[in-house]
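Human: Note token order:
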Amino acid sequence: MPLKLFLKLYLRLIGLTTVVLLLCFSLFWGSNAVRLQAWHEQYPAPLMRWLASIPEPLVQYPWLAELSDVRRLAPVDLVAGPVTRERLDYGQVVADATSLGWRVMVVDSQGRVLEANFRDTYKQVAEAIAYVSLFHLNETLPDERDTLMAQLSEALGVVLTPLIRGSVPDTSVLEQVTQRHVALYRGDEADTTKVLIRLQDGTLLGMTPPSAFNPWHWSVILLLAVVAASVLAAALYLLLRGVDHNLRAVESVAVRIARGEMGARVEAGDSTLVSRLAGAFNGMAEQIQRLVGVQREMIHAVSHELRTPVARIRFGVQMLEGSNSPEALQKQLDGIDGDIQELDELIDEILTYARLEQGGPVFSLVEASVTDIVRQVVGEQQLVRPDTVIEADISDDCERWAMSDVEPRYLHRAVQNLVGNAARYASTRVRVRCQLDEDNCRVDVEDDGSGIPEEDWEKVFTAFARLDDSRTRTSGGYGLGLSIVRRILYWHGGQAFVSRSEDLGGARFSLVWPRKAPLEGAL
């Protein structure tokens, strides 16, 4: 994976994680702020409504002023905002956060505001409910306590039950309840509080208030999980939508190519996740288009090249029927044999060119001497063409760097094609010069012929290209030799090109390739 793409995805992941964390923190803080406000109004609401229903609660429960700082105020003396006043007018229990805790207010039956201030709302409300229950139960006969406990439980929002034998709290709680008649202690569950009440006759009662405020309530956790999952799903959707769009673009181009639109290409920028796929696909499409073009050109050219020798063979066979003398018969047989040899050479050239064009042979590069290959080709071609002077120009410095990573058989074929082609069009002389150094190898094949016009320098490497109509059985050539040379050099990581020879005045064909193969291995 490219480092740029990795860093981009990594930064996006960090950004997405930061967004999810900030969003979850904001929701957690905001939802708990609302939940805490609602809890401070709902939890003490039964107690406040109970007190508001009594004409003189401070007279009936004198300990309220000390326990919860309960006061009765006239509406004009209430310091509150318009929203708080409006809610009180509707009979709601309202809680406001103060610097010392929470202030809980409700309007009583006489239209006055009953106000209570709590530092620890959960503990103080539970104690107040316990003392209210204790007051009324002490004034009730034992036979009527069960009914009264049920009424108090429903009115005050708690659960009052006789203490079950065997569930007596520890000694410290019993000592506290003996002194104060009310004792708070931790229940079996971590988030619950129990209250022990001792009546005047020694009866012990248990009271279970509602649960304390829990900021990690299951509803909050569910909300955070849903929001985080939604954000991640949205991010994943956006990411996959872009990937799907790019893949659909590749699919569309593939369908167009299958329909014959060989020029169709995928447009993908550097920022897309499938840009490498698009680049590889476009390269594949270009290769397919080139191979299809080469195939069409070869079919056309081969059909043209085969037509002449086949026609000559047919003509020769027909002439055999009318040949009476052995000399005429031998002449026709020699002509047919030459035509068959020409067909064999043409087929060999076509197969070699096809192998090189369709991905190339499996080159196993080995270390071999370039100068030895050049000397071998020069010696072979000199024997074939004794009328032309073919010489090798190899200096002593070249021998130092003569060993190169090459495929000897194909390099021999490339040099042989150039030397044979140069000897065919040279007047009297062909020179093969080696220029080797630590990094590169270069072989120049020059002749003293008429040369090649500059506008045709690139054309000569095209398969079946003809610069004139001089190609006959005697002159040889099918227009594939230079194409084969260029492909051989391509698979060696080099290139072949043509120019004008400054010394001999004819054409100069040059082969250039790196002396050592890349570390990735064979081409």
Q: What stands out?
A: The chain is about 50% helix and 15% strand. The mean pLDDT is 83.
